[in-house]
Amino acid sequence: MSDSNKPLVGIVCCRKEIERHPFHVVGEKYIKAIHEFSNVTSVLIPSDDLTSMMPILNRLDGFLLTGSLSNVYPDRYKDSIRDFNMLLDPDRDEYVFNAVKKIIDMEMPILAICRGFQEMNVIFGGTLFQNLENESDYEGHDFDRDASVGDQYDVSHTVSFENGGYLHRLTELSEAEVNSLHGQGVKELGEGLTIEAISHDGLVEAFTVKNADGFNLSVQWHPEWKPEKSLVSRKIFEAFGASCLEYSKKNG
Fold first, then answer.
1. Closest Cα to residue 177, out of 228, 128, 222, 115?
2. How much is the pTM?
């Protein structure tokens, strides 16, 4: 299938300063993962342009919310900042919080990873631990910033899939080993979200939107890291791609 005939997936950019200039950026691993394993092509969406949101969404067949070093602004879940060194990206927050429910209402496939998982939880009324180590009994979910990238993304712990849930049906597995690179996590689950996976110590690691008609999946881990080495990662991206293709045919 030529790129011009592939489903088109939107990826919202993170806005960050690089050498004192503002940039809109997306990690290459997310782009490669959906191109190679979802069989889609993509467009990067600036996070500070709400005026073009609907014209862009109307041209898309799917949406990807990536992970990021930045965090959801605590105001979004009625909390105050505890660590003033915490990386924030209010422009991305503004775009995503305006876009997600429109995407859900359009029945457009959406896949949310790490920060995207946390955004989805807050959008549906959930809250977050700003620092799992300091605010909860959950330990060992964050990563060593001084370790090699390979070590950071190596398998960290197991997650158990909810019996009969989406990931259980998709993979035909009851559990999987995943990486773990998040300092924050779900404190209260958002309204209307269905738990799909729980970590070894009981933290919510994946969920779906219960009453959404289109494909949606939010995961706390990083399936985009070397999906070729993980059956679960491949299954996730393949299912996302198949849903985007179905959406494009239905709305083409």
1. 222
2. 0.96
